[in-house]
Amino acid sequence: MPPSAKTVAFLFQAAGAMTVDDDERDIFIVRVWREPRESADAPVECRGVAEHLRSGQRRFFRHIDDLDDFIRQLSCFEERKPSRR
Fold first, then answer.
1. Tens digit of pLDDT for each residue in 34-76?
2. Angle CA(4)–CA(20)–CA(76) in degrees, nearest 5?
3. Beta strands in the chain (DSSP E)
4. Ranges of each domain in the chain
5. Among candidates 29, 22, 23, 35, which has minimal Cα distance to 59?
6. Using an 8 Å Cβ cutoff, are 67 and 30 in contact?
7. How far out from the chain centre does Cα 61 lie?
8. Is the pTM of this model over 0.70?
């Protein structure tokens, strides 16, 4: 069972992190693992799950872009803007 948002906030405060109101904080727990391979020459498959603590929403993912989309949907990050290089 993952820790509550208040537990994680306490850990951040204990570590000297900036404090903000709970309404302004988005905390995600992300777990990533390698799936067992059927043979030694099979490609490695990574999987993961992310949980947004405030809402309790979870998303399983196979690609890092799916994790990025989930965090953007539930947090204050803006959509990427094209680079001006």
1. 999 889 889 999 999 999 998 999 999 999 999 999 999 998 8
2. 85
3. 28-34, 46-52, 58-61
4. 5-36+45-74
5. 29
6. yes
7. 11
8. no
